[in-house]
Specification:
Length: about 100
């Protein structure tokens, strides 16, 4: 699946309970953030860009995460090891 993300796009902190997720940055620049479920704090920030040192990453099954675009026109390719499933309230983390 291809996703175009603009700065300020509201992407909730979420997890995938049935699949991992591999992400490749095709255009622009983004920050991927991982969160801790218990303290509800960001534990890691990873910048992705097609020309940077990190172009792709794998999000393990059940890992809380979100992404923020740093440049207009940013595009990622997402690959999951299962079919698309809409987010349920149990898989969205409120801060």
């Amino acid at each position: 699946m291809l996703n175009a993300i603009e700065p300020g796009s509201p992407i909730p902190i979420h997890r995938h309970s049935k699949s991992s997720e591999t992400v490749v940055c095709l255009r622009g620049r983004l920050v991927w953030e991982y969160y801790d479920e218990h303290e509800r704090k960001c534990t890691e920030r990873i910048e992705l860009s097609p020309n940077g040192p990190i172009v792709a990453l794998n999000v393990p099954l059940g890992q809380w995460h979100t992404v923020k675009a740093l440049e207009s026109g940013s595009v990622i390719m997402e690959v999951k090891d299962g079919p698309y499933e809409p987010q349920s309230p149990a898989n969205v983390l409120s801060l």
